[in-house]
């Protein structure tokens, strides 16, 4: 099992709390929205998603400035969890609507060779994306394999949700 930096400073416990008390309820009820009213310094795309580049993954994008600390925490954890989330599909419909390949793409569009990160604000508007990432990261920290997590996510979202992203099998 790889050692991720998300365990430091109680991040894991905060993620657990984040998921367990249902902070995402409002987002989950509304699903994914492509409407964004805030102005940002990043590039906005036809689907309404904003992409913004920062120098490194420790520097969060400005589109998170007005978001709550839990959202920032999950974006930080997602950026640290590429080896996990790259293998976990998303079930919000973003595979068809915006070309995402995995749940990781809902948070990060690209990791540059120089360490820069191109962030994606898609997950800020989508409770399904947030819930899948939080659950996957917590399950991994609790000792589940990526294969186990993938099977559980696939089972949980197999009915009543759009087709998953085209995430390759593990």
Describe this entry's structure for a reader:
With 170 residues, the protein is of the alpha+beta class. The chain has one domain (50-170). The protein contains 7 helices and 4 strands, in the order H-H-E-E-H-H-H-E-E-H-H. The chain has helices spanning 11-20, 25-30, 69-80, 82-85, 94-97, 127-141, 146-156, and strands at residues 43-44, 50-54, 108-111, 117-120. It has a 4-stranded antiparallel β-sheet, with no helix packed on it. A hairpin with a 5-residue loop joins strand 1 (43-44) and strand 2 (50-54). Helix 3 packs across helix 6 (127-141) and helix 6 (127-141) packs antiparallel against helix 7. The longest helix has 15 residues, at 127-141. The two termini are 15 Å apart.
Which blocks of ≥5 consecutive residues have pLDDT under 50?
20-30, 34-40
Q: How many DSSP helices?
A: 7
Q: Secondary-structure element sequence?
A: HHEEHHHEEHH
**Percentage beta strand:** 5-15%
Q: Structural class, judged by helices and strands?
A: alpha+beta
Distance between the termini: 15 Å
Provide the residue-averaged pLDDT: 84
Largest sheet: 4 strands, antiparallel
The number of distinct structural domains comes to 1
Briefly summarize what is shown.
The chain is of the alpha+beta class and 170 residues long. The protein contains 7 helices and 4 strands. The chain starts with 10 loop residues before the first helix and ends in a 14-residue tail after the last helix.
Top keywords for this entry?
single chain, 170 residues, alpha+beta, 4 strands, PCYCGC
